[in-house]
Amino acid sequence: MTTYKIYDLGCKVNQYESQIIRQQFASMGFSQANGNPADIYIINTCTVTSSADSDSRSLLRKAMRLNPGSRIIVTGCYVEKDADIIKRICPDAEILKKGELISSSCGLSGFTGHNRAFVKIQDGCDNFCSYCKVPMVRGAARNRDESEILNEAGRLAKAGFKEIVLCGICLGAYSDIVKLLDKIESVKGIARIRLSSIEPLNVSESLIKKIKSSEKICRHLHIPLQSGDDKILKRMNRKYTAGEFVDLIKRIRASIPEIAISTDVLLGFPSETDKEFKNTLNTIKAVKPMRIHAFGYSPRKGTAAFNMPGEPEAKEKSRRVKAVIDLAGELAESYANKFKDKTVSVLVETSRDKKTRMLTGYTDTYIKVLFDGADCLINKIVNVRINMISRSYVTGAINGN
Q1: Three-state SS for 62?
Q2: Which of these three, 336, 366, 388, is where a domain ends?
Q3: pTM of the predicted protein model
Q4: Distance between CA atoms of residues 22 and 16, nearest Å
C-alpha cells in the first residue's frame, strides 16, 4: 500500500488544510507512514516569517533525506511566491498551489491527533500590514459558503468533537460572524465554540454581547496588538492606536470580566527604538494579556516594510522578545490566579502530560490544567477545582476527589 507523510507549518488554517489533504489521500486508499520512510511526502509550507521559510526548506531536505526515491509534493503559502527556490533545492518536487491540491468544497469529517477540531470559515486578507506577506500569497478576503461550514460542524460533532475552533486568515473579515455563531450554536453535539485570532477592528459590540450571552462560545479572544507604540503602529499600517486597543480590552472586560485575552507582539520593527519598545511594554502591562506570542521582525520581500530603514540588530531584537516573554509569564500567572480555589470546566486532551503523566485539558478561558484521573475521562468535559498555580503548571483536582 502506498504510504504518505504530511509535514505542516504555521497557522490553524494550514493545519486545517493539512487535515483536508490527509482525508483526501485516505479516500484514495493511501495510508499514513508510521515511523517508516514514506512513498509520498507532502510539505504544507508557511511564509509568515523568514524562520517559517527556513523551516519549510528544512522539511523539504528532511523528506529528501528520509527517502531519496520518494515523491515530494510541496504546497502552502511559501510556494506561492518562492517556487523557484523549492525547485533549486529539489528539481523533482511537485509544486502545487492550494487550489490544485485542496478541493474548496471538501469538508472535514475528523481531525487526526486532536480533540478540538478546526473549521475554516474564510480565507485571504485585505489589511496589507506593512510587514506581512500573507495578502500576497493568500489573496483577497473571501467567505467560505455557510452551508459548507454548518455541514462540516455537524459531521465533526457526530464524530465526537465537543469543541470546534473557527479559524481564517482574517477571521473577522467574515461577513457576519455573529449570525454564523448563532447557527453553529444550534448544531447538536457541539459544547464549545472557540474563535481563533481576530483583529481589533473586527471586535464589534455585537460580538462582545454574543460571547457574553452564549453558553457555548469560549470566553477567550486572541486579538493581535503587534506594537504598543502609535508611531510604530502607523508604520505597520495598523489602523488603531495603542490607546484605542487598551480601551477595546477595557470594554470587553467590563462586559465579560473573566474573559481571557491573548495577543501577538512583533518586536524590532524598522525604526523601533528603545523608547518605542518601552511604550509597547507599558501597553502590554495595561492590557494584561494571559498569553503572548512574541516574535522578532523579519523583512519580507514585496512588503511595504521591506526597505524601511532602522531595523534593530538581531541581538537587540532577541533581547526585546525575551523581555516580552518574561513579562508574559508574570501576566499568565496573574491571570490564572483569578481561578485559584475555583471550579472550572476542562475539556480533557487525548494525551497525558509527558513529565507528570497527569491528564491535561483546557478551560474555555484557555488555561491548561493538569490533574489526576482515569483514561475514560479523555475527550470529556469535567469539573476541576484549581489548587496550585505556578509559572510552569496549573494543577487541580476533579470535584469529589
Answers
A1: helix
A2: 336
A3: 0.95
A4: 10
